[in-house]
Structures are given as C-alpha cells and as structure tokens.
Design goal:
The chain is mainly α. About 60% of the residues lie in helices and about 0% in strands.
Length: about 160
C-alpha cells in the first residue's frame, strides 16, 4: 500500500533542506507563505494570517485541528469564527508562526520526515519535564525550550 504524496509546501521545505534554506524563516512555507524575510513575515502577522494558512499547516503536519487549536491557543468556536471571517488576529497569527517555527526545527532535525517530527513532538520527553514538546510549545518560553532541546540533540548533547 502506497502512502499519499506529501503536500506541496512540505515538499518545498524538504527541497530547502537538501539545497539550502532561502532564508532563516523558510519554515513559513509550511503556512503557505512565500516571503521568508522577517519584515514580510511581521507584516503578515500584523495584518493577520489568512485562515487557509491554518489549513495548510494542518495538512503539512498531520496534526488534527484540535491539536493545532490547542497549540496556537484558539478555541474551537473561535477557530470556526476565524474560518468564516477568513483571517486570524495578530496574536493568533504570531502563535501560528511560532508553531510553524517549532515544527520546522523538528522537521529539520528529522531530515524532513514528517512522521518522525510529529511523533517526536507528540511524545512525552523527560528532558522537558515529562511533557510533550507540543504541549510546551503553546507558550513563547516553552517553544524556546523545545527549540533549545532540538539544538542540543542536533549537537549530540543528550539531555
């Protein structure tokens, strides 16, 4: 049985891993964004990301909408409202970009394998105090700790 082809955004990110990142913030391709420079990303966040960015990220990660809603701290009813309105608030957009950054780091660590990245992010990690990286990444400082752990693992510093 063959698996379904990876979404185009995920394939683009995997190509970046092989050929070199077009910028420090190339992970935003997982949201369907095409500008990787920070001024453009900040502008998009301040304007509010379009709802399809959430859907694209969900498709690229394989997370459920409930998991993503919890990660970016958008309750189900608000998520339904954002779908109708077509756009996220600035704060919600910022959290969605943060989620993409964390996922992108995990994806990079696992050589572009989304199954491994998602599995790692959803499994309890002793180095993070016995919680899942996904749970910890709901806050800025928690996301930073997840990224720090990935950095240590990349450099062979087992925590």
């Amino acid at each position: 049985m063959r698996s379904a082809p990876a979404p185009a955004d995920l394939e683009k990110f995997r190509r970046f891993l092989k050929t070199g990142m077009p910028g420090e913030h190339a992970y935003v391709v997982l949201l369907g964004l095409s500008a990787f420079d920070y001024p453009s990303i900040i502008e998009q966040i301040e304007k509010g990301l379009p709802y399809p960015s959430f859907e694209r990220f969900q498709k690229n990660t394989g997370f459920t909408s409930e998991q993503l809603g919890e990660l970016v701290q958008v309750p189900r009813r608000t998520l339904a409202r954002r779908k109708t309105e077509g756009r996220f608030s600035t704060d919600e957009s910022d959290r969605l970009v943060r989620a993409a950054r964390v996922y992108g780091k995990a994806l990079h660590f696992f050589g572009g394998d989304p199954v491994e990245a998602t599995g790692w992010l959803t499994s309890v990690r002793r180095a993070l105090g016995g919680v899942t990286p996904l749970d910890l990444a709901r806050t800025g400082i928690g996301a930073q700790e997840v990224e720090n752990l990935i950095g240590r693992l990349e450099h062979g510093v087992f925590s």
